[in-house]
Amino acid sequence: LQALNPLAVLDRGYAVCRDSQGKILKDSRGLRIGDHFTVRLARGGIEGIAEKMIPSDGEVKNGQN
Fold first, then answer.
1. Taking Cα atoms as reference points, which of 15, 27, 46 lies closest to residue 36?
2. DSSP string computed for the chain
3. How many beta carbons lie within 10 A of that of residue 41, not counting itself?
4. Does residue 64 carry a pLDDT above 60?
5. pLDDT tens per residue across span 9-62
6. What pTM, to 2 d.p., does this model score?
7. Does residue 65 register a pLDDT over 60?
8. CA-closest candidate to residue 49, choices 41, 63, 27, 14
9. Is the dihedral of CA 16, 45, 53, 30 positive or negative?
């Protein structure tokens, strides 16, 4: 049962990313450059602003392109 605990998943190095509205992000296309986001870690979290977009094909797109 402990292995299924969402906090145990975070303890293994995973994170939960949310947009500025609190919606969980599952795809980089959920944000645009300049959008605010939060990252929930096993202990604490991070707030940030998207500077580069890296889609699943690996092509980096930043605010200067």
1. 46
2. -GGG-HHHHHHTT--EEEETTSPBP-SGGG--TT-EEEEE-SS-EEEEE--EE--TT---EETT-
3. 13
4. no
5. 888 899 999 999 999 999 989 999 999 999 999 999 999 999 998 877 766 667
6. 0.76
7. no
8. 63
9. positive
